[in-house]
Amino acid sequence: MRSDLSRRRFLGGALALGATATLAACGYQEDTGGSGTSQAWSYTDDRGRKLGGDRPKRIVAQVTAAAALWEFGIRPVGIFGPSKLPNGEKDPLAGPIDLGKVQSLGNVWGEFNYDRYVSLEPDLLISVMYLRDELWYVPAEQAEAVEKAAPTLGVDLAGVSMPDGIEKFRTLAKALGADVNTPRINEAKATFERAGQNFADAAKTVNGKTALLVSATKEGMWAGNAQGFPSSKQMAEAGLTFLEPKAPGDGNYWEQLSWENAGKYRSDIILLDNRHGNLQSEQLKASYPTWRQLPAVRAGNVFAWNPETPFYYEAATEQLDRLGSSLRTV
């Protein structure tokens, strides 16, 4: 999302697409305009690719997708993308995934163990997309080989609100054979919806005040576009007013600011990126004078926020509840 290579950006070229004949041989369908015979599984991904044939059983998924599908009962055999922190603990992005029951193909950007991928004999690879047709965490130089090994499916999350993103995965899980209407899932959804309403009520208590998304490192501060992140887009739709960066780069997600210019956007509230590797509030107050001068910091209105909140009900509910409670203290 930012431009540093370790966290990676929402920016880059589109993945090369294989020839139509190759795609058909790998389990894609050509659009013939008719349904023909019924299929055990049929799905059109967000690139417009039609998949069909036998329902996939051996699925490899990028961590964001794997965590979302896990809640609905889909159990990938392999994952790729951040699942463990440097200290060995589970990355929050992995959410409910049982890491002892899946094979990891890579934990950082640019790391995708193709030989291990093939050894898993995958029926389908699933990844999210933040840019047109780019499968997140599939290295561009390996994309063609990955496409030939098994069909791929892309879930576009660019500019999608959290409820809509979760619903995308619910629909996909159903197509993959999951029962997405169990009492547990329906209760989790209802709890999430109540949390959304409670957050909207909390947002009314700060009417007239502004919030700013911030990510911070030693190299500088980043001001985020609230419409670009599913969790903040939901909060904006619920009534929280955000200051939007005037010159966002990097795929229209972040505007980079030097520490000397940290005061460019002076909001009443800051939602601070709490992902591993980013500076947190106490570190910033101790070492960055321009941070201490910000109105939200002086008022004590800096609250932790995860730009990559996993797309499952429990994680989304927890963040809404926590931030809603924080707004009521402003």
TrEMBL record:
The entry's cellular-component GO terms read:
outer membrane-bounded periplasmic space
Q: Name one Pfam family in it.
A: Peripla_BP_2
Q: Which InterPro entries match?
A: ABC_transptr_periplasmic_BD (IPR002491), Bact_iron-sidero_bind (IPR051313), TAT_signal (IPR006311), TAT_signal_bac_arc (IPR019546)
Per UniProt, subcellular location reads as:
Cell envelope
Q: Does the keyword Transport apply?
A: yes
Check the record and name the SUPFAM superfamilies matching this protein. Answer: Helical backbone' metal receptor
Main location, first listed in the record: other
Q: Domain Fe/B12 periplasmic-binding: where?
A: 57-330
The alphabetized UniProt keywords are: Signal, Transport
- A GO BP annotation: iron coordination entity transport
Extent of the signal sequence = 1-24
Q: Which PANTHER family match?
A: FERRIC ENTEROBACTIN-BINDING PERIPLASMIC PROTEIN FEPB, IRON III DICITRATE-BINDING PERIPLASMIC PROTEIN
State the family named in the UniProt similarity comment for this chain: Belongs to the bacterial solute-binding protein 8 family.
Instruction: Extract the NCBIfam families matched here.
Output: TAT_signal_seq
Indicate what this protein is called per its UniProt record: Iron complex transporter substrate-binding protein
Q: Write down the species.
A: Prauserella muralis
